[in-house]
Amino acid sequence: MNIIEVVNGKLHLLTLREGLGGYCVVCSQNPYYLANNGVEINFEIDPKSVGRLALLIAPYKVRVGIPEYLLKNFDMVCFEVGSRFLHAAGVNFTRDGVSLISYKTFPPNIFSGKLRIENKGGVTSCYFNNDKIGSFPQMQNMNVAVFIEAFPYSAFLAVNQAFPYSAYEANQIVLDAYVDTLSIDEVSTAMLGTQWANMMWVMMTAVMLMTLTAVIKKIREVRK
Predict the structure, then answer these.
(1) Domains of the chain
(2) In this structure, is the dihedral angle defined by the CA atoms of residues 58, 64, 66 and 69, taken in order, positive or negative?
(3) Which of 14, 51, 54, 80 has the smallest number of CB atoms closer than 10 Å to its CB?
(4) Alpha carbons 193 and 179: distance in angstroms, whole number
(5) Per-residue pLDDT tens over the stretch 4-20
(6) Which residues contact 208 (CB under 8 A, 6 or more apart)?
(7) In which element (H, E) is residue 211 found?
(8) pTM over 0.85
């Protein structure tokens, strides 16, 4: 059983199963234009948790499923909580299905902070608090959806996952996290994505009506 709820104004992600069975993800309802912009979240993770919490952006046309398993292009920054080992902040820049992954370790007593994805001058950088974890050339399409995901590690994943500082214990397959204050630097610029999506729907509707009108006119001509 996995829970996604709002508690005291914060997004609560609770995974009660391991691996993909415990995967939780939420996605923005609208697209945002994040070229020369930035998005960030504040988070808290229960110390008994084992897994990762991630902030991810990807082209808006895909909004379902598990982003890093389905998408060919995305940017992700995450914070990984291990057990009795160092914690780590990691990045995953994926272009055309090829991923560049890097990480930076942190002391095991850190369970909260800020994840940030920032784009400037055609370069996307990812941060944990004020530490830059990695940078990469931006995606061609920066009209993106924003994802927040929680992923608890299983025994297999703890040994084989890309960020190698996780550990697994039989009674620790839960990731319990709170996310607060998702914010965008330039909201007015970011909302261009929403406006563009609305314009596309209007344009598609107009084209459909024009086509339908033309078909009806043609039918009338044939009947005459």
Answers:
(1) 2-190 (2.60.120.200)
(2) negative
(3) 14
(4) 24
(5) 888 888 899 988 776 56
(6) none
(7) helix 192-223
(8) no
